[in-house]
Amino acid sequence: MTGGFKSRISGLGYSIPERVVTNFDLEKIVETSDEWIQTRTGIKKRHIAEKGTRSSDLGTAAARQALQHAGISPQDLDLIIVATITPDMYFPSTACRIQNNLGASCGAFDLAAACSGFPYALTAAEGFIATGHYRNVLVVGAEVLSGFIDWKDRSTCVLFGDGAGAAVVTRAEGSSRILASLLGSDGSQGEILKIPGGGSAFPPSKETLEQGLHFLKMEGSEVFKVAVRTMEVAVRDVLEKGGVKLEEVDWLIPHQANIRILQAVAERLKIPSDKVVINVERFGNMSSASTVVALAEAVQDGRVKPGQNVVLVAFGGGLTWAANLIKW
Ligand code: UT7
Q1: What's the whole-model pTM score?
Q2: Of ligand 1's atoms, which has the minimum distance to the CA of residue 316?
Q3: Catalytic residue at 136?
Q4: How does pLDDT run across 38-65, given as a tens digit for each residue?
Q5: Which domains does the chain have, with CATH numbers?
Q6: Is 255 an annotated catalytic residue?
Q7: Helices marked H in the chain — which ranges?
Q8: Residue whose CA is closest, atom 8 of ligand 1?
């Protein structure tokens, strides 16, 4: 972002549903094994929301924590952006629901960038703050993916989990700030990762339900290859934009899709594994919530310290990708 006011993250929070589903639990419902899931993905367990839980429920809980951490009240918010591919409903937006739950009085909208949702929304928030008309923007990544997973499809049901994370993005006055951000998309490859049914292409009907078009579909190995390549390039580009060298990166916080993807990206960049924040083993892939929850955990437990260079990078359906370089 050139010119205008700079942004920093002043508060973080997250909310993960209580119920744990282990790989052993999944062995009972599909033809899979703990060994396969751990070796191919690094995932040991994921949290799955109770029926009836909405993305806004998790998002609101995460947002309350982030507001408290930032030391501001909902009335101080100038805008709410919610990244989600599992909104409560088509409309009203999940952002409006969170605005009402919090008792905030500001604009609110949803943003759909799949697993790149949080860095996408953070970049959008940065743009609003740069104008000078917005001082505090709440950015939420919230997903209840479990309702859109075909629990009979072993190639996808073992991968995902539910959860939400939130960040308060504030006008930066000191050296802590977002140094650079980038967004990317390639709609020509949209077919490899999608929930095809329910929209104007395939409005909900008996047929779309019978065909399972409301479930997430993924060509896993294709997505894997593109994810590694794209995230590597996104990290290099955001560092160049921000004037920071690869050796100066203190923490790489990638989207938590699969531990093999994270390791491959880190290896290509020659970033040592102890500088990569990983939580996929406990939460699986929480789409737009993954990067923000990983960041929130790493800040809360003291791994991320003031003055350090943090890189967020994500990749997801669209295809979309995004990265932020942050001086913490
Ligand atoms: O958030 C962004 C979106 N998501 C991702 O980035 C995920 C990207 N992709 C991946 O993480 C990996 O491609 C997967 C974990 C999805 C799959 O791993 P893979 O090493 O690419 O395996 P594969 O799809 O090539 O499948 C290998 C075999 C197949 O059997 P055959 O055809 O070789 O007999 C699958 O049927 O593994 C089988 N398989 C399973 N076996 C046991 C697929 N899922 C399972 C399973 N348990 N859960």
Answers
A1: 0.96
A2: 2
A3: no
A4: 999 999 999 999 999 999 999 999 999 9
A5: 7-175 (3.40.47.10), 179-327 (3.40.47.10)
A6: yes
A7: 23-27, 34-41, 55-70, 94-102, 117-130, 154-157, 206-210, 220-242, 259-269, 280-283, 290-300
A8: 224
